[in-house]
């Protein structure tokens, strides 16, 4: 019964994301509000990726992940990505002005009742071997696989580098 | 006996302390001096993305801002190039008084053609530089740029690299660095590691250090 319910919810979510991607040029405000996902006690807020410079072979995806459960969970892998050869979960650190990037082999832990921001200069989902350019306004599908909560399909929205997930603010122009 | 006691208890410690202090001051002095006006004098022979030579002489034409990165970098490199593009726009007419370089940390993959294509997405004044590994190393070393290839297995690699901009004046002296603050803006730091004030006015600090 529980499984059946989950499937229904998943179906509802995937259809709503699918239909919102069809309206990508029109109802911007509604789309902003639709851009969150939930699986079990895990909530994913506003996944986004930057549109890429010409000829770029790599790109990164960001989001906020909230764990409302009373036990730790972990984003173990990202799959079902058609626009890149390979996907990895990365951590970036800055030490003495040196930028270092490493794959998180055991996944990204989201502690009980806490949240993790995937953001520029921190954690990110790295798309390696892009098969196409990430273009502004388009949405890019991926499946997030959590250790406890299970798997959920999400769409990364392609935005410019002045994008801010909280406000729709623009520094320039 | 008494004199020996005094020597041990009073004079010796003070001599020791003075020595330590003097060594400390001397060490700091010696360390800081070359930092303040490091002149770049290297015989490097590189290539820009248009196929032209790039060497020491080009650095002597105008003050320069140099960034070291690679096109297979998902995060800090495109962010830096976008911030630089915004900065060039903000500089207005003064922008043409500076040369802007994106020097590759990954000559294996970043050919002139790839650099040209990649940089076409940013301000057209940013010039891509590549060349032979040994020749690039001369420039990295001259500017204290840390570049380290890191094997990720299965033929994949990434590169750890200094992610701040180097500021060089017309006399090819390194006058400071421009650093990221939270990936959303720059701050300008002189050779003493002092953040320039006013902190938020990057343009003003840039002009001051480069003497525009």
Write the layout of secondary structure elements.
The complex is a heterodimer of chains A (173) and B (212).
Chain A: H1 2-22, H2 28-34, E1 36-39, E2 42-50, E3 58-67, E4 73-79, E5 84-95, E6 98-103, E7 108-110, E8 114-118, E9 123-130, E10 139-146, E11 150-159
Chain B: H1 2-36, E1 38-39, E2 45-48, E3 53-55, H2 56-59, E4 64-69, H3 76-91, E5 99-104, H4 112-119, E6 126-130, H5 133-142, E7 147-153, E8 156-162, E9 165-168, E10 173-181, E11 185-190, H6 202-210
Parallel strand pairs in B: 4-5, 5-6
Antiparallel strand pairs in B: 1-10, 2-3, 2-6, 4-9, 7-8, 9-10, 10-11
Write a concise synopsis of the structure shown.
The complex is a heterodimer of chains A (173) and B (212). With 173 residues, chain A is of the alpha+beta class. In chain A, 16% of the residues lie in helices and 47% in strands.
Explained architecture:
- The complex is a heterodimer of chains A (173) and B (212).
- Chain A has a single domain, classed as PCu(A)C copper chaperone (Immunoglobulin-like, Sandwich).
- Chain A is 16% helix and 47% strand.
- Chain A has helices at 2-22, 28-34, and strands at 36-39, 42-50, 58-67, 73-79, 84-95, 98-103, 108-110, 114-118, 123-130, 139-146, 150-159.
- In chain A, strands 1, 2, 3, 4, 5, 6, 7, 8, 9, 10 and 11 form an eleven-stranded mixed β-sheet that branches.
- In chain A, a hairpin with a 2-residue loop joins strand 5 and strand 6 (98-103).
- In chain A, 29% of the residues are buried.
- Residues 8-32 and 169-173 of chain A have low confidence and may be disordered.
- Chain B folds into two domains: 2-36; 39-210, Glutaredoxin (3-Layer(aba) Sandwich).
- By secondary structure, chain B is an alpha+beta fold.
- In chain B, strands 1, 2, 3, 4, 5, 6, 9, 10 and 11 form a nine-stranded mixed β-sheet that branches. A two-stranded antiparallel sheet of chain B has the order 7-8.
- The longest helix of chain B has 35 residues, at 2-36.
- Chain B is 39% helix and 28% strand.
- Chain A binds chain B through residues 50, 52-60, 90, 92, 94, 96-103, 120-121, 124, 126-128, 161, 171-172, and chain B through 71-76, 78-79, 81-82, 86, 89, 114, 117-122, 146, 150, 152, 156, 158, 160-164, 177, 179-180, 182-184.
- Strand 6 (98-103) of chain A pairs antiparallel with strand 8 of chain B.
């Amino acid at each position: 019964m529980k499984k059946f319910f989950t499937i229904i919810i998943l179906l509802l979510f995937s259809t709503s994301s699918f239909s919102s991607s069809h309206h990508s040029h029109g109802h911007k405000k509604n789309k902003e509000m639709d851009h969150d996902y939930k699986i079990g006690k895990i909530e994913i807020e506003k996944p986004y990726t930057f549109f890429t410079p010409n000829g770029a072979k790599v790109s990164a995806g960001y989001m906020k992940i909230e764990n409302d459960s009373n036990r730790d969970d972990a984003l173990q892998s990202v799959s079902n990505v058609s626009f890149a050869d390979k996907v990895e979960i990365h951590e970036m650190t800055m030490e003495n002005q040196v930028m270092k990037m490493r794959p998180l082999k055991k996944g990204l832990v989201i502690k009980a009742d806490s949240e993790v921001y995937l953001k520029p200069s921190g954690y990110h989902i790295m798309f390696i071997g892009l098969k196409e350019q990430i273009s502004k306004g388009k949405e890019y599908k991926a499946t997030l696989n959590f250790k406890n909560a299970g798997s959920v399909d999400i769409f990364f929205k392609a935005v410019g580098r002045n994008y801010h997930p909280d406000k729709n603010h623009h520094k320039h122009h | 006996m008494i004199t020996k006691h005094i020597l041990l208890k009073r004079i010796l410690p003070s001599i020791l302390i003075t020595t330590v202090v003097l060594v400390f001051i001397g060490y700091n002095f010696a360390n800081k001096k070359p930092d303040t006006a490091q002149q770049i004098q290297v015989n490097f022979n590189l290539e820009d993305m248009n196929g032209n030579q790039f060497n020491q002489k080009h650095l002597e034409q105008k003050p320069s801002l140099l960034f070291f990165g690679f096109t297979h970098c998902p995060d800090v490199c495109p962010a830096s190039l976008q911030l630089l593009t915004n900065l060039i726009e903000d500089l207005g007419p003064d922008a043409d008084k500076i040369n802007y370089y994106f020097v590759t940390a990954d000559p294996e993959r970043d050919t002139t053609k790839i650099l040209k294509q990649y940089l076409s997405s940013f301000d057209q004044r940013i010039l891509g530089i590549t060349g032979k590994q040994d020749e690039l190393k001369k420039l990295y070393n001259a500017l204290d740029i840390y570049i380290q290839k890191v094997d990720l297995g299965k033929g994949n690699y990434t590169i750890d690299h200094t992610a701040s901009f180097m500021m060089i004046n017309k006399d090819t002296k390194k006058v400071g660095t421009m650093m990221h603050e939270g990936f959303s803006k720059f701050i300008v730091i002189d050779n003493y590691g002092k953040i320039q004030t006013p902190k938020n006015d990057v343009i003003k600090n840039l002009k001051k250090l480069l003497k525009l």
